[in-house]
Each structure stands twice: as C-alpha cells, then as structure tokens.
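> forwarded from #structure-qc
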C-alpha cells in the first residue's frame, strides 16, 4: 500500500519535500509557510506533522527513492592518485616546527 499514489497535499506536501532535502523539521515548517512566530512553534508543528501516518509513509517511500543503494556508493580516491595540493593548487604550510 503506497502513498505515492495519494501523497500529502498542500503545505504537508511542501513540508515533506523540504524535510527530505534538509532533514530539519523546524526549517521545513518555515519553508512550507506554516504560521509561527518563532522556531519553537515551528519545531512543535514539525513534531506534530512527523507523527501523521500519511506523512510518515510518504517520507519512507520518498527516502527509498532518493537514498543511494549499496552498489551506488561513490568510489574513494584511487591509490596513487594525484595529491590534493596538485589537484587544487593549495598547499598546507605549518610554521613553528
């Protein structure tokens, strides 16, 4: 039973999309244009929204869409690759030794 066919509407949808990007409920509440005079009100509102089953299911499905799979992990630097100072032109200088 997926909620992707019936996603949250209006501000709840905006809250979810901002939450996926920021992982910050307070900021997501502000960005979704919920009313609130200060961060405490937005934090309480975010807590309330994150307890709604429809929002929980939507976030769970969206995270599975945007999450990196184990076979998609970015490779690290190759052994013997060019040192960072040569790639960036930045060199660390330590004085007083």
């Amino acid at each position: 039973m997926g909620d992707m066919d019936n996603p949250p509407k209006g501000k709840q949808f905006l809250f979810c999309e901002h939450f996926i990007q920021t992982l910050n409920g307070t900021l997501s509440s502000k960005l979704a244009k919920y009313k609130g005079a200060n961060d405490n009100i937005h934090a309480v509102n975010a807590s309330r929204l994150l307890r709604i089953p429809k929002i929980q299911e939507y976030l769970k499905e969206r995270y599975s869409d945007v999450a990196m799979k184990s076979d998609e992990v970015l490779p690290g630097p190759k052994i013997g690759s060019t040192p960072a100072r040569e790639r960036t032109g930045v060199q660390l200088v330590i004085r007083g030794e």
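QC bot note: DSSP finds five helices and no strands in the chain. The longest helix spans residues 53-66.
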